[in-house]
Amino acid sequence: MSKADFYMSNDPLITNLNNAGDSKIDVFGVPFDATSTYRIGSRFAPNAIREAFQNIEIYSKRLGKDLEEINIRDLGNLTKVGEINEMNKMVEEVTREIIANGKIPAILGGDHSLTNGSVRAFDNCTVVVFDAHLDFRNEFEGLKLSHATFLRRLYEDGCMSNLIHIGSRAATKDEWDFVDRDDITLIDMERIYDLNTGLKQFKDTLSSSNDVYVSIDLDVIDPAFAPAVGNPEANGLSSREMLQFIYCLENFNLTGFDIVELIPAYDNGSTAALAARLLAELICIADR
Ligand SMILES: [Mn+2]
Question: Is the pTM of this model over 0.70?
Answer without folding.
Answer: yes
